[in-house]
Amino acid sequence: MKYQKIREEELKNKVGADWFSQFDTTEIIGNIDFSVFPRQDNLFGRTALLWAEAKTGNYDVPAMFVQLILTIGKARTFDKTLPPAFLGAFDFKKMAFIPYISIQDIFYLNDFNWNVTPSNHSTKEFKLIKERIEAILKQKSYIFDFQKDEKELATFIKNNVAKATTANKIKIDKNNFIPIYLRWLEIVKPNIDVNWDDLKKANIYDNDFYLADLFVDDRDTQNIDDDLTIRDSLFVVFQNQGYKIAKEDLKQMFDATIKFKNTETYLQFWKLYKRPPIKEFQDYIIERRDLLAPQDIRERKGAFFTPRKWVELSQKYIADYLGEDWQDEYYIWDCAAGTGNLLAGLTNKYNIYASTLDQADVNVMHERIEHGANLLDSHVFQFDFLNDDFTKLPQSLQDIINNEEKRKKLVIYINPPYAETGSTKHKESKKGVSNETMSHKKYFAKMSTFSKRELYVQFLMRIYADIPTSKIVNFSKLKNLQSSYFLEFREVFQAKLEKLFLVPADTFDNVKGKFPIGFFIWNSEKNQIFQEIIADVFDSESKFIGNKKIFSYNNEKYLNDWLRPNWSNIKKEIGFLSCNSNDFQNQNGVFIEVEKKNQTSTYFKPIGVSNLKESSIYFAVRHCISADWLNDRDQFLFPNNRWMTDLEFQNNCLVFTLFRNDISAKSGINHWIPFTEHEVNAKEKFASNFMTNFINGKLKIEEPSENTLFENENSGGIYDNQPRQFSAEATAVFDAGRELWKYYHAQKFPSSGGVSEGRGGYNVNASLYDIREYFQGRNEKGRMNSRSEDETYTQLLGDLRSNLKILADVIKPKIYEYGFLKE
């Protein structure tokens, strides 16, 4: 075999030198193993010709392509750089190619988990992709043996890969029109000869020019005119080799044709893509023009699109609450309508009103009316809800708002923007979001510094104050219910919360976080300060998965308040506990380190003998329950006193902490080793036996001095110096951990701390983290590998984690019983 018995890096170098010497194979794209670029930049900079997966050994071709596809999809590399014409895969024996366009649809699978490990062949995602591409590979792939097909491979590279930039045009669909837009911003926009600041003042943006480009017919690219498929709603159209402003009230201001600085640049760019977009996606692209808004505009508006499944579910909940004839009995106003998708499915157009900030969105809704949308032209209008006076509303809507009885029949149905402003020590303000609105100024005294920053809160406040007794039904985050910063808001906004359902935030466009978004039904005729509610919960597939009680935390003390008195008198530290904010979304910010690396951080608190018990409880409580999208905003609280007499709970938390932390002995003296040297057959004496002495009640009580490690009553700390008794579950964790430590200390290590076979030298004071690092190693980016090739180690670590999970399950009920969390 041509490349037998060489490492992967060497294989990639040899393949690059032997087959792609006329190209540049040195550039690294994300986690893609191998990339091929032309040596010379073209008009569009550096566009890859090939992305490939590399494997040592004799590998299955479909499996190699699956791993490459998962690698690309996980990082969404195609969003960040123009994809190549070919994908490839090679091992020591063969190389295969497939046109990228043949498999690009896979990257836009709905409800697909791209976060799996690409190299894990056992996941359902790996198997699903493999099933999808095997038939494609049989028809579209080209496979060459490095030795048997040497001439054919060289010819293919010369005639295909080398000319890949002129391969088939990429079709434009709902999945790729945004990445193409990002590329258009780099290449075409700078070439348009226009003053963008002047256009921006007239509310015309670069995305209007992009849409004009999309709706051009490539069958006549040299003589493009406006008698083809151009949408009436476009503000800009392509005409006579340039752009014309189509917005009626701006034609006089921008009456000349806007030309290119270099027409060839424009034509070369659009040679890559087939225009207009695929017919079945044209309506979608026009409707979703909001996704093309410039980043600063989108951030200011906090824009995103409500998924149809949640629209339908919200309307079902409204009908359940107001009655099945609610659309005939109530008026409906979406005052943050965007392009109006929240109103889809409603039937009585005479009772529906829709307003939005941008005239472009109003135009889209008017166009949708022409194509059958169930709305009235006169009921769809431009209105800045946070700034404009109600006298600007249609008279029929004013009549409803100004009539007390009709107002009780008005449903404000919105998915308002979630943008936020206001500087804190953690982030900068978004200029021009909420501190410039009339609502911000009007309700300044009624809202706290934090709550007034949220645009959606400003919507709620104006509705509650200026449209009293109306029904408010809205999508939003849960800050207004749960955050301590919103206490003043809850005291002012006293509409009764009648119904609430929760869904994952990342099912909404432009939302990446793992947290809940709620749909709220408020009755502002009833006054009630929110305390708690039982919410219905739906997963990303819109399946009902149960209920969750949501609390206000109006008069609560928090977990950090509980621990604070226990770190004030620590004289000698055995470590530092990072005490991040009191909710699940900050769970990763709770950890222990031997030495305080960040000397300026206020999060790191000292751990000594006098507060080890409380610190362990804190750590275990924060980590026994995994963070997920649903508990993301739940708060950890100041507990009741019942934990103080529960020695088993205290000791279980200690054991959990000992075997769950990521302490490293490389950072300083490791006082956290849970075993003696004799128990694990260590080759040398440990630098510290603090933890086993603490467990066995053998700490020496000394008078305080500069070198005293352990506090006692005289040095400001109090601890009980008694042997710990452990539960069966905690003992099982000790037993599993002991076997793992013994296996580590039994290894044959290189002398003098050297390196052998990719593994570090012997560290007698190794922590669990250090042991994992030794067996699992690190990749080329310095990250610890997720798995080890040592089967014995893998089994021992699995046993430890399994027993630790059982211990966590024992601790969890006590977390709620003692009030660390509300259930």
UniProtKB/TrEMBL annotation:
InterPro entries: DNA_methylase_N6_adenine_CS (IPR002052), SAM-dependent_MTases_sf (IPR029063). SUPFAM superfamilies: S-adenosyl-L-methionine-dependent methyltransferases. One of its GO terms (molecular function) is methyltransferase activity. One of its GO terms (biological process) is methylation. This is Uncharacterized protein. It comes from Kaistella chaponensis. The lineage of its organism: Bacteria, Pseudomonadati, Bacteroidota, Flavobacteriia, Flavobacteriales.
